[in-house]
Structures are given as structure tokens and as C-alpha cells.
Amino acid sequence: MKLRVERDSFSDAVAWAARILPQKAALPVLAGLRLEVGPDGALELSGFDYEVSAQAQLEATVAEAGSILVPGRLLAEIVRSLPPQPIDLSTDGARVVVSCGSSRFTLPTLPLDEYPTLPAMPQVAGTVGSDAFAAAVAAVAIAAGRDDALPVLTGIRVEIDGEQVTLAATDRYRLAVRTLKWAPVDPGMQATALVPARTLAEAAKSLTSGAEVTLSLSAGGPGEGLIGLSGAQRSTTSRLLDGEFPKYRSLLPDSSSATATIDSAALTDAVRRVALVASRTSPIRLSFSPDGVSLEAGGVDEAEAQESLPAEFEGEALTIAFNATYLLDGLGSLDSDEATLAFTGPTKPAVLTGKTGSDGGTDHRYLLMPVRLSS
Fold first, then answer.
1. CATH number at 2-114
2. pLDDT at residue 224 above 80?
3. What is the pLDDT of residue 375?
4. Domains 2-114 and 123-249 share a fold
5. What's phi and psi for 18, nearest 5 deg?
6. Which of 114, 326, 338, 352 is deepest in the core (most CB within 10 A)?
7. pTM, whole model, 2 decimals?
8. H-helix segments, the chain
9. How far apart, in Å, are the Cα atoms of 117 and each of 15, 21, 165?
10. What topology does CATH give the domain 252-368?
11. Residue-wise pLDDT tens digits, 299-326
12. Are 263 and 284 in contact (CB under 8 A)?
């Protein structure tokens, strides 16, 4: 193999494909990044760890086609540090030489014949705007669990119903749900998938360089289902999670006994300030009345903070407490300058939403469990 590539595009492609490589691979070849050049002059980079695959394509000036497997993370670090000049790659026996300007690196190659075959991209299901999809996934992923002992809660449930896609995630303490429009291949399509939240969030964010993202789905048997995302000469697949996702729709209340509408930025800033005196296990108390909302944290024998904000409030006055981090996550997920909190009681979940129509036609709800206050 012998070729020349533009530094920035090569660096981006290597970073995209190498991001899914394990820090400590069970098999040495899984730490490798496959570089393959065909006679058409296209360079394809691939990474795979048996759970997630990533591929990127870019144009190259090819003198000699071929395929090699190189240490992926090391190549990514090297390329990122190179000066903004064309990069030359060439094989020299069992090694590959990377040259750029006056810099020259020689890397060992890994046995290509031991590298596993990447999964094929599943059947195309439809397309969605890349920016809207990335924003929706990011807004929902914050509520996904981090405990690998409960793998079902570490995923985002993707529900396809005709021209709507609904994303949902929960860690049992909060629930985020967002619905957005998309263009399905089959207008009557109905499907569900449970995708690892971290994988989906990273992929969706990385695919915003193109206008659209193509979603592909393969149901398969238990542990064999795949989701595929592609766009802007990049593609990725991920194995779906097994298990029954909680029946989250039953958690969303149909009505409320009180509502409060507050400036999002002002509430976010106030929560951050008041939370400075709260310990990691202490909640922030919010008292709502027709006069507005009062925020409090801390108390007897410790630091204490109070702040008041104007709010449009309807219903009976109430005091409710929340984990400050969870509340800030919810406020940060809103694409709105106003935040509305709907209550059914001081000990029951509250639902946080933004201004109607502020998110480009999407429907976003963030349900937050309150912290029970000691009497």
C-alpha cells in the first residue's frame, strides 16, 4: 500500500473509526484499525469490537492499493499531532510508514487475516435530519442509567411509528422522552429497538457534518439485532440490547394539579448557585406559590442558600425537592427559553417541558422523581 491523503480529513476519519476501539482489547487485533484502498482510489478505515463497528471513507491519491491493520488509537494520536501538510502512508514489509513534512513514524502492523468480518449494514429504515436527531439523542441520553449491572437501563429505546420516532431513556430516578419527525422508507413502519445510550449519542453527534442520517434496522434473534447509522461518508453499527424496557408511558401523568412557568436561563443559574451549599446527597427545595418560586438548600449547622424568582404559577402552593444535578440535566435538555413544571403533588414525579413549538416540531418531556423531605 502506498498513498497520500489530506491531513485534516484523514485525522477526522481516523478519529471517527478509532473512537470505538477498546482501551484494553481482549484480542490484540481488536485494537487495530483496518485501512483498505481499492483501485477506485477510495480509502476506507474500519474499527470493530464485536459490539460496535465504525467505518469512514475518504479520497486519497493512491500509488499502490492494499489493506493493512495498524494500532488504531496510536495512529489517531500520531495523526492528530501532525502538522497541516499532506500525509504519506506506505508499507515496508510488516510495518507501515507515516510521513508528514519532516515527521516520520514507523508502526508495526497487526495480522490482517485474524481480523473479524464486520457486520453488514442492516436494511435501511428511513432518514432524519442530522442536527435534529443529534439534539434529540443528547436530550434523552442524559437520563440513561450508567450501571452496567442493569444493562436495559443503559439504553435508549427507539420507537418507530410511521413518520414519528420516539426516543426514551430512564435510570429509575428520571425519564426523558422526545418525539421527532422523520422520513421512513415505509410510511406504515412500526419497530422498536433498544440501543446503548453512549454509543448512540456519540454516533449521532459525530454525524452532524451531513444534512441527514440514515437509520437502518435488523431485528434478528436475541442478541443479534443491529442498528446502523450512516451519513457524510461515515457509518456505524451497534448490537442492540436485550431485555424488557420499562413501560414508561404509564409513568407520564395525564393531568396536573399545578403548573409553574419560569425563565429557563434564570432558573438554571439560580439552581447552580443554590446547589453550591448542598451536599451530594442533599436536595434543593423549591417552594411554589402565586408570588413565584423560592429555592433553598442547606440548613441548620451547615451552609444555607436561598433565592427567589418570578414565575407564572397556577394551582395550590407546594414545596418539592429535587436532586440538583438531575434538575440541571433536565433544564439543559430543553430547547426553550421557558421551562414549565407540571405537578401532581409534592411527593409525585414532576414533568418538565419547554415552550410549545420551540423545538422545531419535536415533543420533549423530562419526568423527575422528587426527593422525599423529612418531616
1. 3.10.150.10
2. no
3. 54
4. yes
5. -80, -15
6. 352
7. 0.91
8. 7-18, 72-81, 130-141, 197-206, 264-274, 324-332
9. 21, 15, 31
10. DNA Polymerase III; Chain A, domain 2 (3.10.150)
11. 777 899 999 999 999 999 999 999 999 9
12. no
